[in-house]
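Please study the protein below:
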Amino acid sequence: MQRAIGLVRDNVRWHGDGPAGGPGYFAGEVEPCINGLALANGAYFGEAVDGLVEKLVGDELADGGWNCWAEYGASVSSFHSTICVLEGLLAWEQAGGSSEAAIRARRRGEAYLLDRGLFRRRATGQVADPRFTMFSFPTRWYYDVLRALEYLRSTGAPPDAGCHEAIAMVAARRDDAGRWPLENVHQGPTHFELEGPEGLPSRWNTLRALRVLRWAGVDNLS
């Protein structure tokens, strides 16, 4: 895997002008969701990604989150973009990265999600997107409630009041055999089939749901 990461570092370029293309993979591109994923990958494998952290902190929007359409004028954050960035920043911190600005940005991003109960519009209280309530794996760049809860669990902080409805949703999806189904399969090239088809029990969703419920102190998990 380290050899493969080295090949990515040395050869993969984002789109750009000129024969060499754009910046290298771990230097990032313009979309914060993509940069969040690249940051998480680089941090995990020990690549130099501090520049990506600085870029993402600078790309945070006024409401506390991120949006891949910001370069086209979007001023309201996206659940999808925000969770990708949050996971990347947390992975960087857990790998030994340290920046007060990054920590503050990450906590503002968490507040963006929690203020919306993890899946509702702040202004109306309506479900922002029905797919947010459908649990998927692999998640790719897509947001859902289980992904958000697993991220929040990974921070080590106790559950916030903004998690309660989402935690209850996870608990309610458990089937009679104690498992959770795969509810949404995202399109895109898949090199290794890990789950599926939709509707059947999912090992990864079950593992993640059990982690979340233990973190939340929900009883009857045996």
Notes: The chain has a mean pLDDT of 94. The first helix runs from residue 2 to 11. Helices lie at 2-11, 32-44, 50-59, 79-94, 100-114, 145-154, 164-172, 203-216.
